[in-house]
Every structure is written in structure tokens, then in C-alpha cells.
Design goal:
The complex is a heterodimer of chains A (225) and B (99).
Chain A lengths: L1 H11 L8 H36 L1 H9 L3 H26 L3 H31 L16 H37 L9 H26 L8
Chain B lengths: L7 H21 L7 H21 L7 H25 L11
Helix pairs in contact in B: 1-2
The chains are: A mainly alpha (225), B mainly alpha (99).
Chain lengths: 225, 99
């Protein structure tokens, strides 16, 4: 018990390797950005493969892309943007030391994140029903070449799946924050974990901001039958 | 430590612009702009990314070091994309040695 109390004080204090609290905070922020850059490369590889194969099979990819539900995609984008809005308000509440507001906004962000995942699960389920999941039962109607169509849906599942995995991790981080926020661990002087988690959450939002038009929208104008 | 705290109003305006841009990009996708459809979609996505990074991720108040690191992401991404596509898209333009 005494150890726990001690550990609690420790996180609030300035660690000995830093000169100032500003430097300590800046180190955390920069560290998070460096991690996010590695994430850009991680997702970037998938975006690159998608770009290449979309160029090789423009018609099949166009048909497959148009078969996705753009309205659901747009609604889900809005849900995610709302979650970023509540997240930034959570960070703001932490900056101002408003504990109750922080708890409320963290819960709202979690709920919106889970709503996004719920809609995503509904969409994935639709793909199973329509036999649009790559594998032995795959069938995409209207195109002669099933291979490239499978390739589109493989990339669709890989990209949205990796993004959803990041959302699940994000919700996990939010529940950790919530646990400590309820216990009053964060103050206006020390709220680095909330700030850093915010950076991660917004980054995952940015990934979706690119996934949505690239997967759902860019082939709509062709009006493929 | 947190010398910069934006107002709720600022965040609300940014959030509403983001929602509006989502509606615009979805609507514009059905208009036939030919090859420019991709350009417009990516342009709107880039604007949304900047809004999120500058306001929600507090990039406006970041130190130069953090900004440099973040901008570095685009450099690495550019190298990966440009060099790979320069290979893939030019295959067949020149004969392959030994073939």
C-alpha cells in the first residue's frame, strides 16, 4: 500500500534525468511522434500496395470498391471525427485540471470508438453474407477475373482490419486513462499520458481520413454497371 | 506546463469543418471528374489531416524539433512510394537485360 502511494507520487514528480517539466513533457511528445512516424510507414506499405494493384486492375478494383457502402463509410467517418472531438475536449479538461469533465469525455470517446468498431463489424458481416471474403467461398459477381477481386478484398480487410486493431488498442488505452482519471491521478501539472494518448487517437483518425476516400469513394465517378 | 489551451469554440469550429469536408468528399465522389476524382479526394483528405494535426494534435504549439520529426514522416513515405512506383510504373518501357 505504501509502495503504491510512493509510485503514485513518483509519476507526478520531475524525473532526475530532466532539467525542467517542459523538457520532460517535450521528450514524451517527441517520442510519441517518432512512434507515429513508424506507424505512417506501417500503413504506408499497405497504401502503396493498394495504389500499385489499383493501377494494374483499374476496372475490377473500381467495381469492387463501388460495391462498398459509401453512406455507411461516411457515417462511420463522422463517428470517428466526433470521437476525436471528444478526445481533444478530454485533453483540454485535463489541461485545466477538470477531473469530472475529463472522465465524461474519456467515456464519450470510448463509446464513439466502440460505435465505430460496431459499424465496422456490421460491414464485415455483410461481406461474409455476400461471399466477398477472400477464400474458397469467394465470389464477386459481374467480373470475369475473380483473382484481382479477391486481391481488392484482401487489401480491404488488411487495411480496415489493421486500422480496427489500432482502434481496439486505443479503446484499451482509454480504459487505462479512465481508471487513473477516476482516481484523480491527472492534474493540470501532470497530464502527459492523456496528452500522448490523444496524439495516438487522432493519428488513428487521420489514417481513416485517408482509408475512407481511397477504399470507398475514388471509383464512384466511373458509374460502373 | 500547458501554456496553450484552445477554447472549446475553436475545437467546435474545427470539428464542424471536418464533418462538412466529409460530406463534401462523399458528394463530390459521384461527380465525374475523371482522373481528378482521386486528386480532389486526396486533397480534401490532406486538408482534414492538417486540421486534425494542427488543432487536435496541438501541432500549432509544437516545438521545431517535433515538427521536423513529423514532417520527416512524409519524407520517408515519399521515398518509399516514389521509388517503388518509379520501378513498377516504368516496367515494360525498357527491355529487360538477359531476356
Amino acid at each position: 500500500m505504501a509502495d503504491q502511494a510512493h509510485a503514485q507520487v513518483e509519476t507526478l514528480a520531475l524525473r532526475e534525468q530532466f532539467d525542467t517539466p517542459e523538457q520532460q513533457k517535450e521528450t514524451s511528445t517527441l517520442g510519441m511522434w517518432i512512434f507515429l512516424i513508424t506507424e505512417v510507414m506501417f500503413f504506408g506499405g499497405l497504401f502503396l500496395v493498394y495504389t500499385i494493384y489499383r493501377n494494374v486492375y483499374p476496372t475490377v478494383f473500381g467495381r469492387a470498391s463501388t460495391s462498398l457502402n459509401a453512406t455507411i463509410g461516411a457515417v462511420n467517418t463522422a463517428v470517428l471525427l466526433c470521437s476525436s472531438f471528444t478526445m481533444v475536449l478530454a485533453v483540454r479538461s485535463a489541461q485545466l485540471g477538470k477531473r469530472k469533465a475529463l472522465v465524461i469525455f474519456l467515456i464519450l470517446t470510448m463509446l464513439l470508438g466502440l460505435m465505430f468498431l460496431g459499424v465496422k463489424a456490421y460491414e464485415w458481416n455483410e461481406k461474409f453474407v455476400e461471399h466477398h471474403v477472400p477464400g474458397t467461398h469467394f465470389h464477386f459477381e459481374g467480373v470475369a477475373e475473380q483473382g484481382p477481386a479477391q486481391l481488392f478484398f484482401s487489401l480491404y480487410f488488411a487495411m480496415t482490419g489493421l486500422h480496427a486493431l489500432h482502434m481496439v488498442v486505443g479503446v484499451g488505452i482509454l480504459s487505462w486513462l479512465l481508471y487513473h482519471a477516476v482516481r484523480g491521478r491527472f492534474t493540470a501539472e501532470y497530464m502527459t499520458p492523456v496528452d500522448i494518448a490523444g496524439l495516438y487517437w487522432h493519428f488513428v483518425d487521420i489514417i481513416w481520413i485517408f482509408l475512407f476516400p481511397l477504399l470507398y469513394l475514388i471509383d464512384r465517378h466511373m458509374n460502373l454497371p | 506546463m500547458n501554456e496553450h489551451v484552445d477554447s472549446v469554440k475553436t475545437y467546435t469550429v474545427v470539428w464542424l469543418i471536418l464533418l462538412a469536408l466529409t460530406a463534401i468528399t462523399t458528394t463530390v465522389a459521384y461527380v465525374d471528374l475523371g482522373a481528378f476524382s482521386v486528386v480532389v479526394a486526396l486533397l480534401i483528405a490532406a486538408i482534414k489531416m492538417l486540421l486534425v494535426a494542427l488543432f487536435f494534435m496541438h501541432m500549432r504549439y509544437s516545438t521545431k524539433l517535433t515538427r521536423l520529426a513529423a514532417a520527416g514522416a512524409f519524407l520517408w513515405l515519399f521515398i518509399m512510394m516514389a521509388f517503388t512506383l518509379a520501378d513498377v510504373w516504368t516496367r515494360g518501357l525498357v527491355g529487360t537485360l538477359g531476356r
